Amino acid sequence: MGGGPATASGSDFQSRVFAFIAVHILGDRSLRWLENTPDTPSAVLSETGGPGDDFGIEFVDSPLFVEAQAKHGLKKDKRFWEAIQLFSERWDATPDALGVLIVDSDSSRTIRRDLRLGLRRLRQKRDDHQSDITRKVLKELGERTAQLYIVEVDIDTDSSHGLGLAQEILRNCLVDAEQALSGWKSLVAEGLEQAKNRGRADKNWLEGLLSKQHTQPKALQGAFPTHRLPPGALGRTNQPVTALTQLNREDVVLEEVNSHLKQGRPRVGLKLLEQLDDEEVAARPVKTRLLRASCLLASGDVPASIKELREAVDYGSNDALVMSNLAQALLVGRQVEEAVALAQQTLAIDPGNRLAWVVLIQADPEVDLDELPSELLSDQDIWRARSMAALRRGDSDEGFTCARSALGCGPRNSDALLVYIRALLATSESEPDRSKHADLMQDLRRVADEALGMVDEFERPQVVEELLLAAAVASLALGDDDRAVEQLRTARRVPRHSVRPTMLLARVLRDAGRSTDALVLVDEEIADGSSPELRLVRAGLLVDLERQPEAAKELESFPYKETVLGQVPLLLEVAIDGECQGCCRPICDHAAAS
């Protein structure tokens, strides 16, 4: 697939955005730009003169209206603030419209990630811990700030994800799928014309356009309809329909869910599955439950995934695919013995089951790799599993070698990069040579930034947090403390928001002589409710600030017997202080035992 020049810019980006919206109109596909809001477009207007100006978008069966601006390579500079000012000045004319600022992957991460997350949190009625850019936009737009969305559309290059998605939709809309490329080019060209003429394009207009501009008119069908087609909808022409349009609706939805899951959007997949009614779920009970369980696992809800898979096993009995997925979920949920037993049962049915081998390799250090089928010797997931198993048993050299092999025998995706990052961290801990350690940290920072560009914080917040922490560790090691602080502050705004970013940030601030700032940070987190470990950090900071009585009081009430402590940050500093030593000793002993 390809579509136009190697890189889009300026008006070309705007015309490609028009084509992207148009494809979704033709395919009856949701844009998925608006959180928890159906947004299947029915028409697109160009050059509205409103707060968006570039586009106005109407939606199927909805009074909703969106005003959108398309900005290529947008940075936090004068051009950005001009765009915000346009929304501010013109929103009174269409007060109920939602605003969308459409950017590309070359735009500033501050806009693509920090502002997007900040606006989402405002819609959730959270105005605390906001980024600097969100606070400034809030000051400019006031109460309408929550009506603004930041959307990244990746359509710049011929290999862009968004362009691939658009052409895939188009392939399934056209009777002759091979005309998808020429169809895309026609829509991009139409985008320029629509901008010149301040036009409006709905589905009928776009179908007529494509029919007119192809040598043989082609009938269009919705590739992934969001509702049942009316009787006779597929028989509007004498042209044959594609195979995909003949599938049942549940098959179509399940295929789309699978596609979103592969592209790292499990929460989108879960939303689609909610559209199926009981009758449609009953038609595909095993596949539906398997996909729902996979989406739940990928989004971090392990107990719900296990429950769903157990139900799937009841339907699928000895289905090796279901059994291996349940084994994987059990392993993630630390139910190791059952996971291993189930993986072994799976291999008795299907000796080449890749996922069952992955589970065994990760869970059992004594697994015999000589029994591994030859076709799996170069499988990326197998190498990833071998790396994780090696890292768990403390063999950082083997873990690093296997992680590099995983990158070499498959796509350079976020999962493979994450394992490589873990291996880099483990290897760096035992590297005495300062020059080699710096090289490892440079590689860590580069790879962490690469992986962050692939992962959505709303879909996989726990992964984004881990990547930001790794990037911060690298920045600290390389002497870039300011960058580390910014990365840790960003990690604290990720929806998962564990205490790890706060703990590390408190350490950084303390080392910089800012113990008071660190204590304010920790007190905020404790007020929101957090892990007991953070209270130990607080005690250490109180000692640092020569407030020993308060530190002792904190430690006396610490619930150490109910707490598993993998590490005790700042605790040694507390322990050497005479006034706190008695309180610390049992906690230290418990930490060592756990």
Topology:
Blueprint: H1 11-26, E1 41-46, E2 55-59, E3 62-71, H2 78-90, E4 98-103, H3 109-123, H4 132-141, E5 148-152, H5 161-173, H6 180-197, E6 200-202, H7 203-213, H8 249-262, H9 266-273, H10 278-283, H11 285-298, H12 302-316, H13 320-332, H14 336-349, H15 354-363, H16 380-392, H17 396-408, H18 414-429, H19 434-452, H20 461-477, H21 481-492, H22 500-511, H23 515-527, H24 533-544, H25 548-556, H26 571-575, H27 578-593
Helix pairs in contact: 1-5, 1-6, 5-6, 8-9, 8-11, 9-11, 11-12, 12-13, 13-14, 13-15, 14-15, 15-16, 16-17, 16-18, 17-18, 18-19, 19-20, 20-21, 21-22, 22-23, 23-24, 24-25, 25-27
Q: Would you mind describing this structure in some detail?
A:
There is one protein chain. The protein has 594 residues and is mainly alpha-helical. The chain is built from 27 helices and 6 strands. The protein has helices at 11-26, 78-90, 109-123, 132-141, 161-173, 180-197, 203-213, 249-262, 266-273, 278-283, 285-298, 302-316, 320-332, 336-349, 354-363, 380-392, 396-408, 414-429, 434-452, 461-477, 481-492, 500-511, 515-527, 533-544, 548-556, 571-575, 578-593; strands at 41-46, 55-59, 62-71, 98-103, 148-152, 200-202. A 6-stranded mixed sheet has the order 5-4-3-2-1-6. The relative contact order is 0.05.
